[in-house]
Amino acid sequence: MTLPAANAAAVSQTLLPAELAAMPLALTLVESSSTVVLRQQAARLLQSHLGLALAECLYIEGSGRWLGRDSDNVQFDCADFNHPYAHVIRSGKPLTLSVADARIRLDHPGFQAQLAPLTATSQLHIRPLRAVDGQREWLGALLLVGQAATLTALIDNPGMAAYEALLCRLWSRLAREQGERQRSQVLQDSLTKLNDGARRQALADQLADDLLGQSVAMQALRRHVIRAAETNLAVLLQGETGTGKDRVARAIHQFSGRAKEPFMAINCAAIPEALLESELFGHAKGAFSGADHARAGLISQAHGGTLFLDEIGDMPLALQAKLLRVLESGRYRPLGASEERCADLRLVAATHQPLRERIKQQHFRADLYYRLGQFPITLPALSERQDDIAQLAQAFITDFCEREGRAEMGITPAALRQLYRREYPGNVRELKNIVDYACAMTPEGADIDAYVLPGEQQETAGQPVVSTAEPVALALSDDIDDLRQALRDLESAIIRQRLQRFGGNRAQAAESLGLPKRTLAHKCQLLELDIK
Ligand SMILES: Nc1ncnc2c1ncn2[C@@H]1O[C@H](COP(=O)(O)OP(=O)(O)OP(=O)(O)O)[C@@H](O)[C@H]1O
Predict the structure, then answer these.
(1) How confident is the model at residue 415 (pLDDT cuts 50, 70, 90)?
(2) Of 67, 215, 305, 488, which one is least surrounded by beta carbons within 10 A?
(3) Which Gene3D superfamilies match (predicted)?
(4) Is 12 helix (H, G, I), strand (E, B) or coil?
């Protein structure tokens, strides 16, 4: 050691006042990052610097009902006087007793376990720790174990009072900060959730322009679409024909991060089996007779975007296996090509068929079904969301008028009631066709009336069975089991036709049927054909 360094060491050992010598200890406490670290440091410093047998900081749990240790899960109930901490906390005063005494008088099992390694001649000194500032009254208790003389000297030392005050100040400040951090984290979390919720709701509202309907089922559907759009999961759309699966598939693409990339769609039921593979996977030049050029398939064209496979239930089994490979490995091989290509796309598949049934019949691969259905969405049938009929009808009327350059038109309550009463096996598509037809049949400047609505549909092809202006063919069916109803239906059909023939002019229709105009109006009202 050089001379100046040796001098410095001597100064630090001998000449420093006690206050300055204690600074490193204070600094260790001040640097504690949490209340747990602070308690551990405070006890460790006391134990190691004062030669105590044990020093420990116990904390009072938030409810104030029990004291705990950082080293284990033992709880010391503040109302249980079988350990000394309850006495100290209740009285607010320090307590000193011998280990020997404590072993006999206080039989709390956790406390007895604390005493076990201590010698009987040692003394226990327990001090309550109280917050010097802030709201928390009691922080915990400090347990010191050592020889009686050491403890007495320590308790009387003003340095110990300062040490305890520093410990309590730091403890309550850290507790406050930790609480604030926790509260602000909770606030932050709920704000993030709120923002996420608000952002999703705003997107779902935006989607309402495209996927019409205010029913609970439609609102839930729109929320699902937004959620699905946020992910890259494969989406399986299931629902009856005409429920809007195609629309939903496009919406998922438009609201996704892939919106600027291509959206490619194919109907697996509409393409001959032999062509479907090359449509999807593409082919190399000369892959089969007639393949004069290499051709990119839809998988390649959808790169970066979305591939929509409609009527997936009709995909041949051999192709299902290849599609599964694309989904699992992201790779595919065009027909006749020697090398594999990479596919980066989101798949949306749709079907109106019960795929589980198709799996049972071994027409559909179960593994593909589960891979496709990472995000399953079921579309509600129109019968499950009848509340939406009026809004859909009005939107289809507006579309029709814009398309055909016609003046705005409305719909009479009677016509609307008829729309509500119908069944729609073809769902929204069928409703749209009916409204389009009714629009075409409604005279310029008038509202759609019940008499222009086509008759109830006989088949489920999604097309309305339109009545013509020709005389009604009286189908005297053997099925008639309610003569009055049959007559009402016939009467309604005749009046409807006649009104149609005269462009809704009730005076002419009444005259042609040999009825007074008032009688016709009354019948129309009864039959809910026209309430004007
Ligand atoms: N929520 C909706 N809002 C507005 N139009 C809708 C809605 N749902 C369906 N449509 C309309 O109904 C018609 C049928 O919809 P779409 O083709 O999406 O049904 P789909 O379920 O794919 O039918 P399919 O199973 O027969 O292929 C389309 O004209 C579509 O625009």
Answers:
(1) very high
(2) 488
(3) 1.10.8.60, Homeodomain-like, P-loop containing nucleotide triphosphate hydrolases
(4) helix
| 13-179: CATH class | alpha beta
Q: Apex CA 184: angle with CA 179 and CA 186, to 5°?
A: 95
Strands (E), 40-186: 54-60, 66-68, 75-77, 95-98, 123-130, 138-146
Question: For residue 213, how far is its CA from the centre of ligand 1 (angstroms)?
Answer: 12
Task: For ligand 1, atom 26, name the residue with the nearest CA.
Answer: 241
243 Cα–ligand 1 center, Å: 5
What's the chain's length in residues? 532
Best probe residue, ligand 1, of 243, 377, 394 (max atoms within 8 Å of C-beta): 243
Instruction: For residue 44, give every residue at least 6 positions away whose Cβ sits within 8 Å of its Cβ, in sequence order, or none.
Output: 55
What is residue 65's predicted lDDT score, i.e. its pLDDT?
84
Token digits for 3? 């001379």
Of residues 319 and 459, more confidently modeled: 319
Atom of ligand 1 nearest to the CA of 244: 18
Q: Which helix (H) or strand (E) holds 433?
A: helix 427-441
Query: From residue 373, how far is each of 228, 348, 368 by CA, in Å?
Result: 11, 9, 8
* Mean predicted confidence (pLDDT) in 364-378: 94
pLDDT tens, 192-242? 766 777 888 888 888 999 999 999 999 999 999 999 999 999 999 999 989
Q: Taking the complete model, does pTM exceed 0.80, yes or no? A: no
What residue spans define the domains of the chain? Answer: 13-179, 216-380, 381-466, 469-532
Question: Is the pLDDT score of 108 beyond 80?
Answer: yes
Among 250, 309, 310, smallest CA distance to 281 is for 309
Beta-ladder partners of 75: 68
Top-tier CATH class for 381-466: mainly alpha
In CATH, the architecture of 469-532 is Orthogonal Bundle (1.10)
- Report the share of the chain in percent with pLDDT over 70: 89
ipTM of this predicted complex?
A: 0.98
Secondary structure (H, E, C), 129-162: EECCCCCCCEEEEEEEEECHHHHHHHHHCHHHHH
Q: Average pLDDT of 375-388?
A: 94
Q: Which residues line ligand 1 (CB under 6 A)?
A: 211-213, 239, 241-247, 310, 352, 428-429, 432
